Structures are given as C-alpha cells and as structure tokens.
Amino acid sequence: MSKCEQCIVKQFNSLKSLTKDELVRISACKTSKIIKKGEVIFEEGDMLNGVYCVKDGICKLTKLSENGKDQIVKMVVKGDLLGQRSIVSDERSNLQATALNDMEVCFIPKSEILADLHKNPDFTFDVLKNMAHDLKEADDVIVNMAQKSVKQRLAETLLYIHDNFGVNQDGALSVLLSREDYANIVGTATESAIRVLSQFKKEGLISTLGKHIKIEDVSALKRVE
C-alpha cells in the first residue's frame, strides 16, 4: 500500500496542502479499497464516515429525480476527493457514487479530515476553493439545461469526455457510457439521446465501434446548434 506522503495522486486535490506529518498520520489510518465496475461506493442519503481519494478509475455522481430517473451531476476521476462536502456540512450525502470502471480508492476517516480542517488553514482554504469550483460548475450546468438544446448539450458532453478522459488506441472515447448515461448527463429521455447520436453519426461527426463512440470531427461538434 503506497504512503500518502509519497503518493502522486494527492497533488490533484486538497491533500497537497497537508504537512508531511499530517500525511504520515493519515496514511497510518487510511484503508485502500478496490471498487468493481457498476458497484455503488455510497448512496444518496448515506451518512459518510470519511472521504474517498480516487487513486484510479472513474465514477459518476447521480441524483435521483422525482420521476425516478438518475441525473448524472458529475464524473469524478483519478485524483479527485469524494464526500468532502458531506463531511464539512455534516449532512447526509446528496448524491450517489457509482463506479464506471474498476476503481482503486483510499478511504480516510472523517475524524482525521476534521482534525486537519481545524488545524491547517492552507488545507481548509484548499477544500473551500474546490467546493467553490464545484459550485461554479453546478451553476454552468443549470444555465446549460435552460438555454441549450439537447443536441448542443450532448455535443458538449462528448467533447468534455474527449478532452478530460482521452481516447483508446483505436481512437474511441476511453470512458464507455451507456446511451442511458448520456441521456442522464444531458437531462433528456434515452430515446432522444439515441436519436441525436444517430444524427451525429449520419452527419459524420462521430462513428461507433460497438458501444464505443469515436469523435470524427471535433470542430464540427463544437459548432452544433
């Protein structure tokens, strides 16, 4: 098991603001977990006993809407922290976290995080900064839902995945999402998402390799209206 003070992943989140002694202390009480694809890390409404540092893999954060559909709020990747908002607010989790592929996460107990939030102002400020960034992203999502068409939102989602998660050797998007997942990200019916993806394919913007999607024309996707 790698030690927190030597782990490169901490550079991507608030843990980078902890001192070496604080990291050594956290390292002694953290636990590593392997989460299988499709497995739920925590559910909406759970009281979290700590935060998860994503060492490898990707998960989706979803909110169950009144009509029983999961709205994908965010995708979380290697280096991100899961659950810090619930720990700071001392509230039950507002979202569900589900692994999109096999993941490795480190679980850090709540008491350790709270101790460092009280003692280390650099760490506290970094956590606040990350939460402010999440809030800004949430604002953008609300505006996009209200002002952009399903076609635009789906095009932006494909580009976001392409830019942030990269492609496989064959050029297909490295994150494999179901058509229902795409619908849940853009906030539409699965049938509508399938119809728009078919249209993109017909226009030569994307191609499909089984369930995988490959972007064929990035600049044209950016111009979708």
What do these coordinates show?
The chain has helices at residues 20-29, 84-89, 110-119, 121-147, 150-165, 179-186, 190-202, 218-222; strands at residues 31-35, 40-42, 50-56, 59-64, 70-76, 81-82, 96-99, 103-109, 206-209, 212-215. It is α+β, with helices and mostly antiparallel strands. The strands form 3 sheets. Strands 1-8-3-6 form a 4-stranded antiparallel sheet. The protein has a 4-stranded antiparallel sheet with strand order 2-7-4-5. A two-stranded antiparallel ribbon has the order 9-10.
Give the helix proportion (percent range): 40-55%
Order of helices and strands: HEEEEEEHEEHHHHHEEH
The total beta strand count reads 10
Count of helical regions: 8
Radius of gyration: 19 Å
The general outline is elongated
Biggest pleated-sheet summary: 4 strands, antiparallel
Give the low-pLDDT segments: none
Distance between the termini: 49 Å
Quaternary state of this entry equals single chain
Task: Enumerate the strands of the largest sheet in spatial order, edge to edge or round the barrel.
Answer: 1-8-3-6
The whole-number mean of residue pLDDT values reads: 91
What structural class should be given to the helix and strand makeup? alpha+beta
Strand percent estimate: 15-25%
Explain the layout of strands and helices:
Blueprint: H1 20-29, E1 31-35, E2 40-42, E3 50-56, E4 59-64, E5 70-76, E6 81-82, H2 84-89, E7 96-99, E8 103-109, H3 110-119, H4 121-147, H5 150-165, H6 179-186, H7 190-202, E9 206-209, E10 212-215, H8 218-222
Antiparallel strand pairs: 1-8, 2-7, 3-6, 3-8, 4-5, 4-7, 9-10
Helix pairs in contact: 5-6, 6-7
